[in-house]
Design a protein that fits this description.
About 25% of the residues lie in helices and about 15% in strands. The chain is of the alpha/beta class and about 500 residues long. It has two domains: about 375 residues, 3-Layer(aba) Sandwich (Alkaline Phosphatase, subunit A); about 80 residues, Arylsulfatase, C-terminal domain. Strands 1, 2, 6, 7, 8, 9, 10, 11 and 12 form a nine-stranded mixed β-sheet that branches. The chain has a four-stranded antiparallel β-sheet with strand order 13-14-15-16, with helices on one face. The longest helix has 26 residues. The relative contact order is 0.17.
Length: about 500
């Protein structure tokens, strides 16, 4: 009997150590942070924006890990977040615009003069089948939770419309939800304004769950950070690996000054809006530093994977100071646009066990690749999903292993609202160095060689008919194969043409 007891103890201890071999994973997702909104250069040269902004903790993380210089999200926030949670391309999950109010298109879509836009999944993600206008999927945090991870959501959720289950992250697999709800922006970043609570007119934007900070002179990002540091004690007590999804509200509008960091930018004589913006960037970076310091103090750096990403390109069409559509130079345009300024984002990965022999990776990847990659980092090989996964893991690159190249696809059969270069209804494909854009409203194609023309100045459609035709056909084949939704012409009720209808001879 005693021998049986010792054998059981040995097996339990063995399972315990095997289980805890899984690394902690921290995903630091910033809202609306542009490719150039950092002192870390993601281009071949340092720019004036890199010299302006102060992000020492991003620099620290980049020195610890690897920069991905061709990382992509979608042009607006909810599609990116749904791709992250499901591993699906936006063509397939159909949450192609930002979510908030249930069962309704955006005013800009309803009031469009020429187009009738499709009924996209404006109610967001659902882990329950049969709910109208949602994508039914097995969520990333649920898989992690089912495999022994303690899962923490902190900050912006924006995964489902008001009153739908996914508006609360605790319904999709997170053990803890800190300040996440349906809205994609806070009514206020200021504790002295109760983060918008009490404003009945705008209560849908009020940040929930931070009542103990109400009335305090504290910035929203710092309040959420303090809650994270407290919440991390739980998985440590349980001796469980944790997945922390720190999804910041920064640097989304409303632009608000974080007084801890604004003086240096005032001394530079910046536009008032840009002072606020720069202070919010530094506030974001300070939060990153707080997390890095905490895991270092708890001796977890050698068993924690850290991923830094933004949910779309930097805001430039509205709210910013100075000339519109120029805040992401050398990239063209900004948030909402299919040009590089709207979709190319800063990305850093730290894997303590990686053997990559460089500091930069230029292989293009897209947000749906995060789902299988995070599960790969977590060493979870066997899992089932109700949805087909479109993403491919990028982890092997960090181990000097090659991965198959695949075309990247964007699809936005919607209307955002603001105007500007590349902002509208569109589909696009990047295949290697080539990028083809199909503008739905203009019924035009654009072709760019991004290796030579990161500025997207030279449209090569007429000069390179072969590549134009090849990519038009690839994009069309993908859209048709996956039953992509397309706008209809109000005048005729007919769907607009597929990209290959514009093939050149």
């Amino acid at each position: 009997m005693k021998n049986l007891f010792y054998l059981l103890c040995f097996l339990l201890v063995s399972c315990f150590y095997e289980k805890n071999d899984n690394p902690n994973i921290i995903l630091f997702m910033v809202d609306d942070l542009g490719w150039q909104d950092t002192s870390v250069p993601f281009w071949s040269q340092e720019t004036e924006f890199n010299k302006l902004y102060n992000t020492p903790n991003m620099e620290k993380l980049a020195n610890m890990g690897v920069k991905f210089t061709n990382a992509y999200a979608t042009p607006v926030c909810s599609p990116t977040r749904i791709s992250l949670m499901t591993g699906m391309n936006s063509v397939n999950h159909r949450v192609t615009n930002w979510t908030l109010r249930p069962n309704v298109k955006k005013p800009a879509e309803i009031n469009h003069k020429e187009f009738e836009f499709p009924d996209w999944n404006y109610n967001g993600l659902s882990t329950i089948p049969g709910i109208n206008n949602t994508v039914y999927a097995t969520s990333l945090p649920q898989i992690l939770k089912d495999n022994g991870y303690y899962t923490i959501h902190a900050g912006k959720a924006h995964l489902g419309a008001i009153s739908f289950p996914s508006s609360d992250p605790s319904n999709i697999g997170f053990d803890i939800n800190i300040a996440g709800h349906a809205a994609g922006a806070p009514q206020s970043y200021l504790g002295i304004e109760n983060f918008g609570n009490g404003d009945e007119k705008n209560k849908i934007w009020a940040v929930p769950g931070l009542e103990k900070y109400h009335g305090q002179d504290i910035f929203l990002t710092e309040a959420i950070t303090q809650e994270i540091l407290y919440s991390l004690n739980k998985p440590r007590e349980l001796n469980k690996p944790y997945f922390l999804y720190f999804s910041l509200y920064n640097v989304h509008t409303p632009l608000k000054e974080d007084k801890r960091f604004s003086d240096k930018y005032k001394d530079l004589g910046l536009d008032p809006a840009e002072i606020k913006y720069a202070s919010m960037i530094e506030s974001m970076d300070y939060a990153l530093g707080s997390i890095l310091n905490n895991i270092s103090e708890n001796n977890e750096l050698d068993k924690t994977v850290i991923i830094f990403m933004s949910d779309n390109g930097g805001l430039s069409a509205v709210a910013r100071g100075g000339e519109k559509h120029t805040h992401n130079w050398p990239l063209k345009s900004g948030k909402g646009s299919i040009y590089e300024g709207g979709i190319r984002v800063p990305m850093i990965v730290y894997d303590p066990n990686a053997i990559f022999d460089g500091k930069e990776i230029d292989k293009p990847l897209i947000i749906e690749d995060f789902f299988p990659s995070i599960l790969d980092f977590a060493k979870i090989e066997k899992y089932n999903t109700v949805q087909k996964i479109d993403g491919k893991t990028f982890k092997p690159i960090l181990y000097n292993q090659d991965i198959d190249s695949k075309p990247l696809i964007w699809h936005y059969p919607n209307w955002w609202g603001p105007s500007g270069p590349g902002i509208g209804s569109y589909s696009a494909i990047r295949d290697g160095k080539w990028k083809l854009i199909y503008s739905h409203d203009k019924l035009e194609l654009e072709l760019y060689n991004l290796e030579k023309d990161i500025f997207e100045k030279n449209n090569l459609v007429s000069e390179n008919i072969k590549v134009t035709n090849e990519l038009s056909q690839k994009l069309t084949d993908y859209l048709i194969k996956n039953n992509a939704q397309m706008p209809l012409l109000k005048e005729t009720g007919l769907q607009i043409d597929w990209p290959n209808s514009l093939l050149k001879n």
